[in-house]
User: What shape does this take?
Amino acid sequence: MQTTDRDALKEKIDGREDMTLIEVLGPESYADYHLPGAINIPAGAENFDERAQAAARKDDQVIVSCKDEECDASPRAGRRLEELGFTNVLDYEAGKEDWRAAGLPTE
Assistant: This one.
């Protein structure tokens, strides 16, 4: 799985690039704040596979994100998406803490 950084992700969001941005943390963390346009599908959710397949097509660009570089939820979710046949998965490794630390907008 490939990764992306804050600048590249910001460019995609600002350019309204066609992608599905998934925060894979729990609903409480998502409700606290999340990246603009992100949807919430927790990595450990029992219905992760079904929700991911309903949110994006297998050839869509899908970006997964979690809290920070220490968080293993986005790499796990990204690998699972690839196992499900998704072909264009990126992991925003630095996560939403990096985004917020840069002073970028959140929802």
The longest helix spans residues 73-83. The beta strands are 2-4, 20-23, 39-40, 61-65, 88-92. The chain has a mean pLDDT of 96. The first strand starts at residue 2 and ends at 4.
